[in-house]
């Protein structure tokens, strides 16, 4: 069929889902699956347990095709249209109601279907699968800010320390308890007020060394500039994270420090709460993402899932 996609300027009802701009940002699109689509997805994907998806990569494409068929093959078109357009490049996907047997496994199946509608997730060495699961608790002794609840996780791009293209990042909330705060934070590169200052800096396209702490299970280091390429319109793509950069001289150190300070001070970021089961998907080189701090609670717990990979060519 020839699907008609929305104009991205108001709420639109399509076959099996609705789409509208996020209340605080016209760039971020909110996609809500209808309850009947979720229920049919749960029933028809039941023969494929999560372990089967982990062991048989082709089933991940089959489950994506199932979800697309339940929306008359319009969801994949819409999501790719959003992700390939630099003016948007991000969506929040959730669902109305719940399936009769709503489980964490069903949520992971749903995120797997969504990711495989837009591309192919990379192997995540931290968890050893095509996705990673991790929990944020009230106390933490890890070697990065990923699991630390009581501080803001600074704005960054993923994939800085791997030799794989990371076009998209999917972040899904699987569970939470005693949680207040911790909203996702987003900043579009084009909305960064001091972009020109750093993009036209003499070090903007100079190779920087990037590594990772032991918890990432990646021992190699890579080199690339912060502004590593331009898109088809000649606009910059970024690849930056303050925790994993390894400057080799004072000039690099000053440039990276000032960049991190500028990003954190920028007022144009978007704060996005994630309901359990929902997922936030961003074009990794056009959007920086982070996380706000949590309010302390001795029993605080939040489990997240991450998938990140490359678009279909």
Short description:
With 313 residues, the protein is an alpha+beta fold.
Question: What keyword list fits this structure?
Answer:
disordered N terminus, Double-stranded beta-helix, 24% helix, 28% strand, 17 strands, alpha+beta, 2 domains, nine-stranded mixed β-sheet, 7 helices, four-stranded antiparallel β-sheet, 313 residues
Question: What does the model show?
Answer:
By secondary structure, the chain is of the alpha+beta class. The protein has two domains: 1-121, Double-stranded beta-helix (4-Layer Sandwich), CATH 3.60.130; 127-313, Clavaminate synthase-like (Double-stranded beta-helix, 4-Layer Sandwich). It contains seven helices and 17 strands. It has helices at residues 35-44, 50-55, 57-70, 75-84, 104-118, 195-199, 250-265; strands at 12-14, 17-22, 25-33, 90-95, 119-121, 132-137, 153-156, 168-177, 184-188, 208-210, 222-224, 227-230, 236-238, 270-272, 279-283, 287-291, 301-311. Strands 1, 2, 3, 4, 5, 6, 8, 15 and 17 form a nine-stranded mixed sheet that branches. It has a four-stranded antiparallel sheet with strand order 7-16-9-14, covered by helices on one side. α3 packs across α5. The relative contact order is 0.20. Residues 1-6 have low confidence and may be disordered.
